[in-house]
Amino acid sequence: MANPLLPIRHKQQNFFSCDVFDTYKDDLASMEHPVFSLSTKTDFRVLEYESNNGDRIKITPSYVDGLATIHDKDVLLYIASSLISNVNKGDIPAQNVRFVAYDFLVSTNRQTGGKGYQILREALARLVGTRIETNIVTNGTRVIENFAILESFKIVEKHPDNGRMIGIEVKLSDWFYNSIIGKEILTIDKEYFRLRKPTERRLYELARKHCGKQKSWSIGLETLRNKLGATAPIVKLKYNLNRISESNHLPGYTISILGNIVTFTRKTSEVSQGKMDSKNNEVIELLQYHGIGPIIIKELVSSYDSDRIIGNINYVLEQDKLGNIKNKKAYIVKAIRDDFRPILSQHDIAQSEKEDSIKKEVSKKINLDKQNKEWVKFCSQRVKDKFYEQPKKWQEEKRQAFIDKITLDNNKLILKSYKKNGFKNPILLANFFTELKDELLTELEEIDFDKYLKKRQA
DNA sequence: TGTTGGTGTCGGTAGGTTCG
DNA sequence: CGAACCTACCGACACCAACA
Question: Which of A52, A307, A309, A425 is the most exposed, fewest CB within 10 Å of its CB?
Answer without folding.
Answer: A52
